[in-house]
Amino acid sequence: MHPTANTAARVAAPIALAVVLLGAWEWFVRSGGVAEVFLPAPSALAERFWLECAEGPLLKHAGVTLIEALCGTGIAIAVALPLGYLVARVAWIRLTLTPYITASQAVPAVAVAPLLALWIGYGLTPVAILCAIVAFFPMLVTTTLGVRAVPTEVLEAARLDGANWAQTLVWVEGPLMLPSVLTGIRAGIALSVTGAVVGEFTMGGKGLGQLLTLFRDANDTEGLFATLVMLVALAIALFTAVYLLERLAGQRGRNAASRRMRASTMLVAAT
Description:
- The chain crosses the membrane at residues 7-28, 66-88, 224-245.
- It is found in: Cell membrane.
- Keywords: Cell membrane, Membrane, Transmembrane, Transmembrane helix, Transport.
- Residues 62-249 form the ABC transmembrane type-1 domain.
- This protein has helices at residues 3-30, 42-54, 58-89, 91-104, 109-119, 124-148, 152-160, 165-203, 208-217, 221-270.
- By secondary structure, the protein is an all-alpha fold.
- The chain has one domain: Orthogonal Bundle (MetI-like fold), CATH 1.10.3720.
- It is globular, with a radius of gyration of 23 Å.
- The chain starts with a helix and ends with a helix.
């Protein structure tokens, strides 16, 4: 299939499915299949979503959740990336920490949140830390895999060229493992939005989690759906932004690998 046609199919297929599902949803509600108090029609939800964005607090609360998610993602990146590199390169660190890192995933975020509130208090900091905990594991795993995937012959060529550890990391390993790292960040940043909402549920806050609580207490189904739509839109926007960076990094990584492989081949031939 031609690349342009393939891209068009990737865009058209999910749009067509969405149109079919929304049309069936609209028909089901309008035909009396379910009361709108339990499941509003898509047209009513679109109207309410626009009203909440234009005149309500939805955008303000979304901004708070976005800040919490970004702060948490930043903390996760600062911890997961160096640790993932060390786990991949240093055997005793890998053997020592892997069981504890794996075991940490058995503890749900909703169980950690009350402890953070007890230890730290309320506000942005504990919610951001909870987001970091949620986003940490996929970043660590993909960083470790990305480091291990760097070809040994490329590293040897860099050392033969006289590159030290820092130069090898910045100019060789960094570009080659960046696509994998960004894959983990892409997954983590989407999960951090969920972590922010969980944190607001349990530790308070002024983000979308608080808005969901208010609409729930008021039995406002349309408000709940409008907030959920904003959550989905926020996660998709962050996911897509990192995906575009990942595509760009992937191209640069392939170019870097090609250059290093050519250099390695020439060096071997000269020898």
